[in-house]
Amino acid sequence: MNISIIGTGKLGSAVLQLNQKHKVIYAINSKNSQDIQHIEPSNTSVVIHTATPEQVLPNAQILLPKGLKMIIATTGFDKKALQSLIQLYDATVVQDGNFSIGVNILFLLNDYLAKLMNHFPEYDVAIHEIHHNLKKDAPGGTAIQLAEGIINHLKRKESWIVPHQTLKSNQISVSATRLGSVIGTHKVIYDSSIDAITLKHEAKSRQGFAQGILMAVDFLEKNPDTKGWIKMQDIIQACLLF
Ligand SMILES: NC(=O)c1ccc[n+]([C@@H]2O[C@H](COP(=O)([O-])OP(=O)(O)OC[C@H]3O[C@@H](n4cnc5c(N)ncnc54)[C@H](OP(=O)(O)O)[C@@H]3O)[C@@H](O)[C@H]2O)c1
């Protein structure tokens, strides 16, 4: 497929490095941002967006009316506004807070374990994440998504809080550490007086995100009629069906 990429920073370059299959038509950053206007369905099948959050909505406003499909890895923008654009233009957009295939497998395991733990009330659960010291939000979106997965599947947990608040038994403690250049580590810890069970995902490089983004490109190639907001979980589930 012909692809174009907006954002050639840490994540964008990981995608460009890993990609072998697809022809890159435009690779755009802040120096050649006017090239976005030249991306058309006649030259590009999918646009990958890994630029900074401020660019997401203006770029979607340029690209979606043309019928271009987008994979948006950028986080930290107004999701409701994107949803409105997707509906307005009957568009196809893959967007997810975490494109890592390993993390998406962790989400599935997390849901399964939470369901199982309804039968084992002696276990309490907490989440801990570690990221590099430049990450602005804490806890990060992936840790929050893990907490929400537990809340959706484990009846005794109804909300999550950060640890300095007093913890009630129906709450999950979600803690965050900012350390050096750690790419991203997430742990879900179930603890009882007898033992502890830990689910852990540790990113070793940005390649995991790039791999997920390229998997999304393949998904769009194989499923050309899919419309709407597509999540990585949808893509992983579709792969499980093959
Ligand atoms: N969903 C996921 O799995 C996932 C994983 C990792 C990161 N992310 C997100 O991806 C985004 C990018 O992360 P990153 O670490 O790659 O950031 P980064 O290294 O700072 O790269 C940002 C890129 O955006 C470009 N850019 C800035 N302004 C632009 C403009 N006006 N037009 C076009 N390009 C512009 C920059 O251009 P220059 O090179 O010219 O400065 C740079 O190439 C962040 O939102 C991050 O949270 C998501």
Provide a quick synopsis of the model:
The chain has 242 residues and is an alpha/beta fold. The chain has 7 helices and 11 strands. The chain has 2 domains: 133 residues, Rossmann fold, CATH 3.40.50.720; 102 residues, Dihydrodipicolinate Reductase, domain 2 (2-Layer Sandwich), CATH 3.30.360.
Please tell me about this protein's structure.
- This protein has about 240 residues and is of the alpha/beta class.
- The chain folds into 2 domains: about 1-100 and about 205-240, Rossmann fold; about 100-200, Dihydrodipicolinate Reductase, domain 2.
- Helix content is about 35%, strand content about 25%.
- The protein has 7 helices and 11 strands.
- The chain has helices at about 10-20, 55-65, 80-90, 100-115, 140-155, 205-220, 230-240, and strands spanning about 1-5, 25-30, 45-50, 70, 90-95, 125-130, 160, 170-180, 185-190, 195-200, 230.
- A 6-stranded parallel sheet has the order 2-1-3-4-5-11, sandwiched between helices.
- Helix 1 (about 10-20) crosses helix 6 and helix 4 packs parallel to helix 5.
- The protein is elongated.
- The mean pLDDT is about 95.
- NADP nicotinamide-adenine-dinucleotide phosphate binds near residues 10, 12 and 76.
